[in-house]
Amino acid sequence: MINAFAINDSRLLRIDDEPADLSSAIWLDLLEPTGEEREMLQEGLGQSLASFLELEDIEASARFFEDEDGLHLHSFFYCEDEENYADLASVAFTIRDGRLFTLRDRELPAFRLYRMRSRSQRLLECNAYEVLLDLFETKIEQLADVIENVYADLEKLSRVILNGTQDEAFDEALNTLTEQEDTSSKVRLCLMDTQRALGFLVRKTRLPANQLEQAREILRDIESLQPHNESLFQKVNFLMQAAMGYINIEQNKIMKFFSVVSVMFLPATLVASTYGMNFEFMPELHFKYGYPMAIGLMIVAALTPYIYFKRKGWL
Prior knowledge:
Shape: rod-shaped
Number of strands: 7
Mean pLDDT: 79
């Protein structure tokens, strides 16, 4: 699918995806393009697109480079998968002949939000670099919202976990905590990747003064978000360690109880095993009150360590 946008009255206006119309487009957004759509771009605009396999490369030379097909940036965008878990999607940005090409394999919240904003917002420079920076700016705003949501969730989780009561809510909090840890790590990776992409863009292009300042402003926003996200990541680890600590304490209490109980019944077991012997000469076997005596000895043998442990505070 090709979404083509042209400039009309300093605003982005969506146009049809016919070859004749694509020549006037300043931004071509390709969402899972078919082979025919790739050929149409190659024939109409002479632009070849990267394969989705190439988008998975992580080395810097494969994500930020410049060749005869233009300036290329591959950047991670935060999204959620079908099960609402945090995920990252790679987007290929190419700027050539004053036109921006974006290639992605799924719908992304940042792109959807920017398309909605573009209906009312005016562009200042009306060029491809401004659209690119606006998309990056929208991505950073989305990441800031994600960080705020993680912070709000951690405040709720901390009350449940630090309470120490291991019930169904505690188990759910642990599951949510692992999800928040995964979210924080993906946000951190996305921020670092965007920082690298903008750094490459600033170094390799002569941006107009307004857009150069916009790029630097986005970089400053990234630098301000990174400590916040790092503190959240540390808080997640703290809560995880606290939860594991409470679980270990509860397990130690259980093991302590069973240890004390087993020791408490050892003397009684000794008495019972003594009178369970089958020797011929055992005077107590013929004693009239031998059975009550043995029972009493076992009770006394069990109560004595119980009282001792109780006074020591072990029970």
